[in-house]
Amino acid sequence: MKLLASLAVGLVLIAGAAQAADHQVQMLNKGAKGAMVFEPDLIKAMPGDTVTFVPTDKSHDAESIKGMLPEGAEPFKGKLSEQITVTVPVEGVYGVKCTPHYGMGMVALIVVGNPANAEEAKAVKHPGKAKKVFEALFAEIGK
CB 3.0-4.6 Å disulfide test: which of 10, 43, 45, 128 passes with 49? Predict the structure, then answer.
C-alpha cells in the first residue's frame, strides 16, 4: 500500500513538472517594435513556468526591476551577453530590464496568473522610453 501511495505521489510530481512551460524571449538590437527590445516583451506564464532570455544579439542582459516583483519572488540579474533562465514561482507581475538599454525602453513584463501586484508595479518610476513601453504593456494586460 505504501508503495502505491509513493508511486502516486511521484506521478503527480512528474506530471506537474511536465506541465511547466519554458517561454523563450530574444534580446535584440532590432525587433518588430523597434530598436533595443525583448521579443516578446509581454509574457503570460503560469506559476512554475520558466522564462529564458536568449542573447540573440550581444551586449544585453535581463534583470528584475526593484518594486516590480510579486511578494515571495526572488530578484534576478543575468550577465551581459549570457542566457538566463528564470523560474516564476509566484503569481503576479514581474518587471524586467536590460540594464544598458533600460532608458531606451528595453523592458519586458511577465504576467504570472493573476497580476495581483500590478498597481504597485505600475507605480515604479522608469527612465526615458521605458516609462512609455511599460504604460503600453500594462494597458495590454488590462484587455
Answer: 45
